[in-house]
């Protein structure tokens, strides 16, 4: 139905108008086309990727929706959509002379997070940085946090893993030694795993990072806000699929978002899914990842670099030319060998701080 209309050259807008009052099976076909990675059809509503300034002036921050099968494809489409449809904003981190940033609210879905191609080449880092970040999300840098009652301490305010695994507490210096302070300390990682083991369909398997008693006055508060998990069981083969929603209040599209997405996919696989599987004896695989960013932005100072490394190259090749397969033996070798170098880097920092 829908595919035949497309082959006959009808526009997506025309198809959308036809499907507003169409029977349910036609609407389902349209949604299937959208989830397959093609342009979305919205029944009776303005296209989510259209620039809202055309209709609503400057009062609305655009909400951009992206859905792709692989991480690399979704990441690239999100950046392109932001570049084409984002609005200009100042930020509190701008330096004199910096161009305005590009900003939007993003709702991104990766249907098969571990599918290839997984790694996009256009991010400011390398395979070694990805490995180090995965280690960081597992707690390798939790001891890098500062004593919050020591103004001279310039280390990190928090780590994501620290907030997830020790929520409610922070580090202070007492009698010259670092100690945990706060009214309570909750291991949310263990709590989420335990909930999913006990009741896979629960809607309560959530972790948060925001601590308003600290973060409302923090210069650089956590960008990550929450992780939510739910399992879907395929009754035909007994495999359970771990679906995940992750929300960021602020997500640096060019400087950090790819590493964030890659890191939390591996966190979900190696920390959450693997432990549920170990405790239950069931096969747990990763289902779709929904990534929500209240502010998904490219800082003005980075727009020229993003244009040079990605946007100006889109017509010169395919996604395969702009990405790596994570399962490629060479990439796997680099990724594995990077762990030792990352541990030495952490140890060197420890010796000097």
Topology:
Layout: H1 2-7, H2 12-19, H3 24-35, H4 53-56, E1 63-68, H5 71-85, E2 87-89, E3 101-110, E4 119-120, H6 127-137, H7 160-165, E5 170-174, E6 177-181, H8 188-198, E7 206-208, H9 212-215, E8 224-233, E9 240-252, H10 257-280, E10 284-298, H11 303-309, E11 323-324, H12 329-352
Report strand %: 15-25%
Secondary structure: helix percent: 25-40%
CATH architecture of the largest domain: 2-Layer Sandwich
Distance between the termini: 64 Å
Order of helices and strands: HHHHEHEEEHHEEHEHEEHEHEH
User: What is the CATH superfamily classification of the largest domain?
Assistant: Thymidylate synthase/dCMP hydroxymethylase domain
> Unreliable segments (pLDDT under 50, ≥5 consecutive)?
1-50
CATH class of the largest domain: Alpha Beta
What is the residue-averaged pLDDT?
87
**How many alpha or pi helices?**
12
The oligomeric state is single chain
Q: What overall geometry do the principal axes of the alpha carbons give?
A: globular
Domain tally: 2
SS-based class: alpha+beta
Main sheet properties: 7 strands, mixed
- Radius of gyration, in Å, reads 22 Å
Task: Classify the fold: give the CATH topology of the largest domain.
Answer: Thymidylate Synthase, Chain A
How many strand units?
A: 11
